[in-house]
Specification:
Blueprint (H helix, E strand, L loop, with lengths): L2 H6 L4 H22 L11 H33 L10 H24 L1 H11 L16 H4 L6 H6 L3 H15 L20 H7 L17 H5 L23 H16 L6 H9 L5 H5 L3
Helix pairs in contact: 4-5, 4-8, 5-11
This protein binds zinc ion (2 copies).
């Protein structure tokens, strides 16, 4: 598959990159599980890896299916574009940076708005961190509304196929920050997201919660006050563990919880909206009715 074929069918990008992902996984498994040179939380456990792979497959199927509808919406808005942007290397890099900026805000919202967190928590609910953690994705992202965050790029005038390609390339590049095998990437850490920065993002240590939302560039966290360096050893996972390797249980746990809470008949409209849109960490307070 060449570049122009990929632009015509960007939904295949992650499948095309899959062989590279599996080589990285095999190498990390070898130095972690076989050579025992990585901490226990970096090791591969069969049940979890199978769960992660199933989640990646479900996510891929959901994305391709939803893409049929979303591409129509993008084309509709592309008809009202503000600028005619001709795609070349310069505008492609501009698109990558602009998309990464949108990703930062999507990711930040995914941690601060429970509706989005219900999808994103899947990615965070593992207590281990290795390349297979990158495969933990939710099939619910299209319903949560992830695609809305890329709509401004289409309205600006970037070709929707290039926008989807940039979104998936960003996601593909993020695979490489899910490892404990690489301590640092040197001076590149000032500008780019790195394994160290992203380990912090997966931490449940109090100082690491809701930090380092970066996709490819770490500069957004530094600009918007959400950067935290890796100092203390990271404890991986979320404060409310899912305790399951069933991909469907993992996918729907938070949605079910949200639905169960909505069924309480004594709630006011304000409380109901808070249960859906307030930050997930404040839900305990919401349950007490404030
Ligand atoms: Zn996150
Ligand atoms: Zn991650």
């Amino acid at each position: 598959m060449n570049f122009s074929q990929l632009i015509a069918h960007p939904e295949w990008l992650l499948i095309v990159l899959a062989p590279i992902f599996f080589v990285c996984i095999a190498l990390e498994w070898y130095i972690g599980n076989r050579k025992q040179q990585l901490p226990p939380s970096a090791q591969y456990h069969q049940k979890e890896v199978l769960c992660n792979m199933a989640l990646a497959s479900l996510h891929q199927v959901a994305d391709i299916t939803a893409g049929l509808f979303i591409s129509k919406v993008y084309l509709l808005f592309f008809g009202w574009k503000l600028f005619d942007i001709e795609m070349n290397w310069a505008t492609f890099i501009l698109l990558m940076v602009a998309q990464d900026f949108c990703y930062y805000w999507f990711h930040r919202a995914s941690h601060r708005v429970r509706w989005l967190w219900a999808a994103h928590v899947v990615h965070h609910s593992s207590e281990n961190m290795n390349f297979s953690t990158a495969f933990r994705q939710s099939l619910m992202y299209p319903i949560a509304g992830m695609w809305l965050f890329w709509l401004p790029l289409v309205i600006l005038g970037f070709d929707p196929n290039y926008v989807v390609f940039a979104v998936l390339l960003n996601l593909g590049l993020q695979f490489f920050v899910h490892t404990q095998a690489i301590k640092s990437i040197g001076p590149l850490e000032y500008i780019f997201n790195s394994p160290a920065h992203h380990r912090v993002h997966h931490g449940k240590n109090p100082q690491y919660i809701d930090k380092n939302y970066a996709g490819v560039l770490i500069i957004w966290d530094k600009l918007f006050g959400s950067f935290e360096p890796e100092v203390e050893t990271v404890q991986y996972g979320v404060t409310k563990p899912v305790n399951s390797f069933n991909p469907l249980t993992v996918t729907f746990a938070e949605w079910r919880e949200m639905w169960r809470e909505q069924r309480q008949s004594e709630l006011t409209l304000r409380q109901r909206l808070k249960l859906i849109f307030a930050p997930p960490a404040s839900q305990q307070i919401n349950k007490k009715g404030s």
